[in-house]
Amino acid sequence: MLGAKGLAEDGMWKSTPIVADINGDGFLDLAALPRLGKGAHVWLGNGKGLWRDASAGLGPPLSCGGGVAFGDFNQDGHLDLAVGDHCNGVFVYLGDGRGHWQATTQALNPAALQRQASASNDTGQNELLGAEDVAVGDVNEDGYPDLVVSSRMEGGITVYYGDGSGKSWKEATADGLPKTGWANKILLQDIDGDGHLDIIAAYEHGPRVWRGDGNGHWRDYSRGLAVSVAGGYYRGLAIGDVNEDGRLDIAVAHIRNGPEIYLQTKQGTWQPAPAFRSSIKAGATALALGDLDGDGHLDLVVGGSQSNPDQNGLFVFRGNGKAQWTELRTNLPQHELRFIWGISLADVDGDGVPDLVVTTGDSLKRRKGELLPRMQVWLNQYHKATPKP
């Protein structure tokens, strides 16, 4: 069941959608960023599958896709929006709680890359600048939200410390993070359980983790995770305790191999979970973890392809709490989509189970007489899903 009336019908929505209650009405709202579009968009939801655009003041004027994240940067009680744009860098927009936005930071990039760009005297778009994704959290534990940004190509991962104004950001130095390469997706979460935020990324050559110490310093925590010789194969990223041993695990989408799961061991290393039966044979680009059926176990939603990489769909796997998965037969599209950029799980209709919010690049053909929109919300009817034979 599609509940996306009022969302974008066209465009290439090159970002993972994010959801939060922006205006405090008790219903979840939605934000995403397009490629070759006119900046980030926010839609206010009414809990019944109807959405109203609330993007006044957002940008950048020409966006290239990337990442978006909410946070109360100026501590006024209203959510603000950070945008990591692929071509231009980081932008910050302060919200008023009613769907209006004011730009306070524009085209923020690492200082070293700005110097290189200036020295190159490039009059066009400089490929060194830009951001691929952005995450928000208080990484130095001073009470103010900070930005963690993955660069577009050469800058690695950069931390910008906030001061509570939403206007001024201090770039961290000598922090232990890589300053080369890029990451398609980046998350902030206390993955090792020590009380400090850690960085988890679908990095250039594989999934990576850096442990934070709460003072802005990081060290690698990736032993056992996959390493790819070629860059850019890993995209979608999700965190959850899939085998219910009390330790958080990593799910990542590989554009050729499909979904991969890495279990965190008590020794602080990572172990690949056993491969599971799946109809996805031509790779995956996005995924999400959540309890879709209310049985207390995490389930897996994957955007991928059964045979042709140009024909993608949405696939659901029921988890049993032992890192074992059963693919379900659903009414979700399986080969109607050109590319799936991101998947988020959230209860947008308030019925107690998470729904699917999906950003795509194109629809290949009509479904039941109508072309699927590029931005999709699928309302969860888990009781109608059955295991595939």
Summarize the structure in words.
3% of the residues lie in helices and 43% in strands. The chain has 389 residues and is mainly beta. The longest helix is centred in the N-terminal third of the chain and has 10 residues, at 111-120. The radius of gyration is 20 Å and the shape is globular.
Give a short summary of the structure.
The protein has 389 residues and is mostly beta strands.
Topology of helices and strands:
Elements lengths: L17 E3 L8 E4 L2 E3 L3 E5 L5 E3 L9 E2 L1 E6 L8 E6 L3 E7 L5 E8 L2 H10 L10 E7 L8 E6 L5 E6 L6 E3 L11 E7 L8 E6 L2 E7 L5 E3 L13 E7 L8 E6 L3 E7 L5 E3 L11 E7 L8 E6 L8 E7 L5 E5 L7 E10 L8 E9 L2 E2 L2 E2 L3 E4 L7 E2 L2
Antiparallel strand pairs: 1-2, 2-4, 3-6, 4-5, 7-8, 8-9, 9-10, 11-12, 12-13, 13-14, 15-16, 16-17, 17-18, 19-20, 20-21, 21-22, 23-24, 24-25, 25-26, 26-32, 27-28, 28-31, 29-30
Helix/strand-derived class? mainly beta
What is the count of β-strands? Answer: 32
Bin the helical content. under 10%
Radius of gyration equals 20 Å
Q: In this structure, how is the largest beta sheet organized?
A: 5 strands, antiparallel
- Large-scale geometry: globular
Determine the N-to-C terminus distance: 23 Å
Poorly predicted runs of 5 or more residues: none
Widest β-sheet, arrangement of strands: 23-24-25-26-32
The chain-level mean pLDDT equals 93
How many helical elements?
Answer: 1
Oligomer: single chain
Strand proportion, as a percent range, falls in: 35-45%
